[in-house]
Design brief:
The chain has three helices and five strands; from the N terminus they run E-E-E-H-H-E-H-E. It has a five-stranded mixed sheet, with helices on one face.
């Protein structure tokens, strides 16, 4: 993660990663390693996105990282395998939903 000036790791119940990129965005990084094509995996991903959204929306992010206040927030999803068609559609809906909350979204496939 060479594009970050500060990185703090969390837990599954909170946030995997909080970083600040050179453009001034707050990056909430999420690592997803569960198999695609299973409803349980997509449900778990939706739950985690909701936790990330609540972390930001509740003001807890700003309380934990005062320098994040009033900065654009982006959830960056890191995955280990290419999503199948159903997962790609789901991710597209997530992106649109987050945009409605003023939160950006990026998807990155981690290379082995």
């Amino acid at each position: 993660m060479s594009d970050t000036s500060e990185v703090t790791e969390g837990t599954r119940e909170t946030v995997d990663l909080v970083a600040f990129d050179p453009q001034g965005n707050v990056i909430l990084g999420m690592v997803h390693t569960e198999p695609w094509g299973e409803d349980a995996g997509l449900d778990a991903l939706q739950e985690r996105v909701n936790v990330y959204l609540a972390y930001w929306d509740s003001g807890q992010l700003a309380a934990d990282f005062p320098e994040s206040a009033w900065k654009p927030v982006m959830i960056r999803l890191y995955v280990t395998t290419q999503p199948d068609e159903e997962a790609e559609e789901f991710i597209g809906k997530l992106e649109e939903g987050l945009k409605g909350h003023g939160v950006g979204f990026e998807f990155h496939l981690l290379e082995a």
